Every structure is written in structure tokens, then in C-alpha cells.
Amino acid sequence: MAEIDVAVLIIDPSVEAKIRAKHALTGDEVREVVLYNGKAEAGWEDHPKHGLRLVVKGQTYAGRRLIAYLMPANEGDPEEGTFVLKTAIAEPAG
Amino acid sequence: MGIMNVVENVGMNEGDFEREPTWDEAVAAFEAVEPVELVRSARKIVVIYCYTDGSFVATSPALAGFEVTGSSLHEARRQARDALAAYLDPVVEVVERFPDPPIETAGVSRSSIGTDSPNLIFEPHSRSGSRAFVSSRSARVPS
Known about the structure:
The complex is a heterodimer.
Chain A: E1 2-4, E2 8-10, H1 13-23, H2 27-36, E3 41-47, E4 51-59, E5 65-72, E6 82-90
Parallel strand pairs in A: 2-6
Antiparallel strand pairs in A: 3-4, 4-5, 5-6
Chain B: H1 3-9, H2 23-30, E1 34-38, E2 43-52, E3 55-59, E4 67-70, H3 73-87, E5 92-97, E6 111-112, E7 121-122, E8 139-140
Parallel strand pairs in B: 2-5
Antiparallel strand pairs in B: 2-3, 3-4, 6-7, 7-8
């Protein structure tokens, strides 16, 4: 299996506002999962519209499950390690 | 698109209009991605221990909802380590920060405060809480 290191995760305030409004998710929760959770899973998705993106699925320490969609900051070298959060989806409560 | 829609949509990105997948759709799509192993470079999180209401409490600014309590600092550290070991990637280093030594020993419910009035002694109204309101009436200056 290929390896990827998300060394830097950039979360634009507008994206944070979007995920907060749509899913009551915070950037810190996404960081928890992407940067710290040892059980998080990831995969490359070649989306027909959004292009190549890294999809990360995991849960926060508090137990919220989420899926984050990250774009490589350097399209020429997607494995360079810097990613930009595009959006994230949280499992609905209940 | 009506003029009101144009006005309401000012400042929004094109992607904001796209319907997001539901959670179930996103999970199903995730099963189809090419899996990669997440490897983390060395990073640290801070765990802060504080003494409150007779217990030691560990929290971390990096982990919302992380809070473990122990009757002793040793117990709080053990529980925090166990909880973090189950959650964190093994390469993540935990940096522990401990409370300053208490000013006075247990059983003495008064403390000296203030650098400009070193002799002023306050007796808290409540002996149970760690944060007690002190009014000026309870302040006395030793002769």
C-alpha cells in the first residue's frame, strides 16, 4: 500500500465557515482526525470534477465520525505533503 | 436566476451550490478509493494537568473533549496515557505540563495573594471549591 504524509493541513476560513454551517464541524475536529488519529483511513480519489484528492475517514476523540476531502497544494507533486481542506462531512447525529 | 438570488449568492463559491453527498453516499464512495497508508511525521500534542476540586484533571487543547480525571496526579497521568494511546498515532509525542506546586498544604483554607500587599490575608468564604469568591469583608490585615 502506498504511503502519504499529511505534513501540513491548510484550512481556509471560508471552508471552516462552510463546514461549520453545514455540518457543525470545526477545523480543529478535522485536524484531530487527519493529523492525530491513529486509526484514520485514507485513499486517493480521482474525481471527474474535482480531480485528484485525498479522502480521509476517521473519528474525533469525542467520537464524531467524519470524512475530509483534501486537495494537494502542489498539483505537480501530490505526495509532497501539503494539503488544503476542500470540505468535510460528518456523520449525522443519532 | 432572479435578482434576489444574485444578491443572496454574492460572495459564495461555485462549489457551494453543489449538492454534497450524504454520509452514506460518502462512506460508499470511500470504499471505492485507492487506499493509502497515512504516515505521520513527528508531531506533538500538549496535555495539561490541573488540580480542581480535589482531583487532577488532564485536558489537551488539540483534542476537543479530552478530559480525564484522577484522584492523584499519578492516576490522572495513567488514565491520560491509556486514553491517548488508544486514539493517537504512535508517532505523536505527548508533552505533559503539570500544575505549579500548591502555595499551602491541604487543610489550610487561606492564602496570601498580591505582590503589592504581601501581608494581606484572605479567607475564602467557601472551603469546598477551588475558586472561591472573596469579599473585602473577609480580608483582614494582620497587625
